[in-house]
Amino acid sequence: MSIRKATIMSTTESTTQTGDDLQQRIVINQATEASAAWLTDPQVFAVNRMTAHSDHRFFDHRPVPNESETLKQSLDGEWRVNVIDTATTPFDVSGSPDFAAADFGNTDSNDAAFGAIAVPGHLETAGYLPPKYVNIQYPWDGHEHPTAPDIPEHNHVALYRREFTAGPEVSAAIRGRRTVTLTFQGAQTAIYVWLNGTFVGYAEDSFTPSEFDVSDAIQEGHNVLAVACYEYASASWLEDQDFWRLHGLFRSVGLTAWPEAHVTDLRAVADYDHTTKTGSIDVIARIDNATAVDAGIVEIVDDNTGIVWSREFSADDIVDGALHIKDGVGEVAPWSAEDPKLYTLTVTLNGPLNNTVDDVIEVSRTRIGFRRFAIDGGIMKLNGKRIVFKGVDRHEFDARRGRAVTEEDMLWDIRFLKRHNLNAVRTSHYPNQSRWYELCDEYGIYLIDETNIETHGTWSAPGDQVTPETNIPGNRPEWEGACLDRVNSMTCRDFNHPSVVIWSLGNESYAGEVFQAMHDLVHELDGVRPVHYEGVYWNRGFDAASDIESRMYAKPAEIEEYLTNDPKKPYISCEYMHAMGNSVGGMQLYTALERYPHYQGGFIWDYIDQALWQRLGDGTERLTYGGDWDDRPHDYEFSGDGIVFADRTVSPKAQEVKQLYANVKIGPDDSGVTLTNGNLFIDTSGYVFTARLLVDGVEQWSADYDFTVLPGETCRFDIAFPDASDYADAAGGSVEVTYEVDQRLRHATAWAKAGYELTFGQHTVTVEPAAATDDGATDELRSGDVEIVDGRWNLGIHGSGTMYGNDFEVLLSRTQGGMVSLRRDGREMVIRRPDIVTFRPLTDNDRGNGSGFDRAQWFGAGRYARVADTRFETSEHGIAAEYAYELAEPNRTRVTVRYEVDATGRVHLTASYPGGVDAPTLPAFGLEWMLPAQYANLRFYGLGPDETYLDRKAGGKLGVYETTAAGSMAPYLVPQETGNHEDVRWLEVTDEHGHGMRVSRASADTFCVSLLPYSTLMLEEARHQDELPAPRHTFLRLLAAQMGVGGDDSWGAPVHQQFQLDAAKPLTLDVTIELL
């Protein structure tokens, strides 16, 4: 059988038949020798690179399910590398006196001086270059001042070498004179490639594949692959994303052997008609060496039931190297994130039938999902129903590997998303690895697929200045080809993935004619999916470049203004809830906007903290941010914005996200529950609803129920809760009863076990006993049981008899301004008297919005307060002392702290702020208490299990929880306010033996508590977790209230007014303390 050399589809060939073919403006240059001039020429972004195509899989035989691709040979593993600073060691890819490119790429070149590096991997994480973190500014700013497209003179080039032996499939292709390609899945920023001394090609665009035909350069047996990877090129101006600037071959590298005939590009539109519940398929397969194909078949296979549709074809059906089939499929199950039903589309190419040789030339396959996503009446709809994205922006990131993430990382991420009710991801701000899209197809996640373009630093300057005249790409024709190529590469690769519902043109790059051309190109390539680009907000003259109204960090009121003024486009917040540090407060104000039809959700910024592990001189490690690697300039901890910490542990912020993003809303009461099923396509039969009755936070009864609510419906169901008054009668007094209903998985899924809780609802009431009880008992002093010592310096009370249990002692100082001893059986609970708290360790949001400046008077107000007056009392019931403090602030506000100690040693403690003060709102008010270090266990009845705040407590569930001082420390990248629990009724602080104290509310008002190994001041002063001192004490903070944490953004947005503490309003902490 004769076999001809494979040819590559020209980049000027259209893949559609519509409109002015903008693909013709994408010019892939051809050359046999490398040129250094390409680095600074924006019109040269690819040389000898092959045409972008779909990421389908293919085989030269009929594969079994889940079979790996045997026609591919991985070149991942250990490579050799030498990193050169081109400012001190000249290196020219076209040859130089110091290091000739020909020598570098030759098979006999000596690389003994090279070091080892893992591919995939970054030069920075391997130690060859220092990591740099900047947000808007370019990393060379202040060192050099190049003007685009020029690049800094201080540049690095990494010379990679990899020796390998051609595998059996590749060797067979070489012998058969079939095509062999070399693919770099991701390389930053620009690469020149040689194979066995032959120049192969040049490529930019760090985040889409660069594939080269190496058929003429590869040989059987031993081969040497050489790559010069540049840190900076003109492409760097297009890759100014808010991330660590990391370089090298950070995604997989590999070879591919083509069969005799090969589907180079496979595109499938799997449409779904929700009115008839039927699907249709529109397939275009572009075939290389189509003359070798005699016939074939296209099939759609259901993994469970087998073939659901098929269509045979002959050689005559292949026209100009393309097979186009369009047909109805009949009744199919639609794809959605709620029920991600996938089918397998296969295209089999057969040669002439031969009785002795299998006639299969190639089997290509891709997973498809039948769905229809469209804008209808200004509203985005999936399969006919309005969709709301409950999303997050996600960088590919690992704290050790940077952006060289593994499948294990991806699986962890996608399971986290599903467990926390997130249904959408924006691939900020570049196309991700292909495997991520496959997983999103399989698990059910909607994707906004974003082009690798961000030029924020070309048009944004300090002080909120906007300089359109310096913007790239804007209206500059020299940048158009590169930008069109980037969006074309992404669209062609990811076209078949049902998870991709929206194409995005990039991020924070202003607007202009280039973006309009990109928009039009995408619609040429894909006439179905809408196009997103937030940048048109900055230049409404190009509003048509986005089919969606998209904004970043708009306040709820601003969004509502758009939604209530005849909106023409669907609205999404492509970035909102800036989750930097202790944040995500006020999120409920955004999710409440779902009541407007044109509001279609948002994407939290962002998914994971971008922080890199760094080994210190003493052998320990810490997570780092900008500046920690002596990188200048830098943007400090602005990379720490995740709802997941950099080490992939879950942040307390995720608790709030999970509850507010839940599709099912649960409203229990004392006789049943109201369920609203916000799912679009699935009912609630796949869940178990567990009803619980809690009395004073402790579960007393539970039962499982089956409640079926259809999508979009609300239903009321009866529940036979026990009579709560019985518990009040048994307690002999009022009890707090919580009626709770949880939604749990009925069956195990790929992302969670059976019984996993997705959301909950609670209803809490106070129940009185049927018969009132009042024994009128008081604790009076009895001779021999309790002794009062009215000393010169202290007023003390001592219990030593048997009536009240073990010995106790309380000392109220006449000079130190408070309680200086609280002791039981010799165990002291006070290191120093409780201090007044009017401040909190600044959060990242506090720093960004100037809270430290605006509320500076409160920083020292409590810490440096002075005692202005004291009163001491004794009675037959015990002793008391009231301390009047004058706060160290301009108003010299007087607050009082009162201790009342009865004959049992019980302390009634009140701290009162009077209000009526003309001053900025308070960060917090209450007391901070230094305890001996052994008292590090916390048990509390309040909202938990994770920390909660005034504006972030929707995800907190009322109950009894246990934690420790160390466990309460959320490891935010920069130490800050942490560990707070809202709506606390009581708490116990104990040592390992259960000794300690119990603090309970003394009135109807709840309070806030935290127990930490560090004081407010320690947290405020540290800039890294490792800078905190070794714990020597435990710090109990009892607050009447604390302001919210905010989250609209982290550079100016204040905490919403309703979650601040008005200085004009009084605040009181009212608790009782009992020794255990």
UniProtKB/TrEMBL annotation:
GO MF term (any one): beta-galactosidase activity
Pfam families: Bgal_small_N (PF02929), Glyco_hydro_2 (PF00703), Glyco_hydro_2_C (PF02836), Glyco_hydro_2_N (PF02837), LacZ_4 (PF16353)
Keyword Hydrolase: yes
A biological process from GO: lactose catabolic process
Domain of life: Bacteria
Catalytic activity entry: Hydrolysis of terminal non-reducing beta-D-galactose residues in beta-D-galactosides
Domain Beta galactosidase small chain/: 802-1074
Gene Ontology terms: cellular component: beta-galactosidase complex
UniProt EC number: 3.2.1.23
The entry's keywords: Glycosidase, Hydrolase
InterPro entries: B-gal_small/dom_5, Bact_Beta-galactosidase, Beta-gal/glucu_dom_sf, Gal_mutarotase_sf_dom, Galactose-bd-like_sf, GH, GH-type_carb-bd, Glyco_hydro_2
Family to which this protein belongs: Belongs to the glycosyl hydrolase 2 family.
PANTHER family linked: BETA-GALACTOSIDASE
Name of the featured protein: Beta-galactosidase
Taxonomic path: Bacteria, Bacillati, Actinomycetota, Actinomycetes, Bifidobacteriales
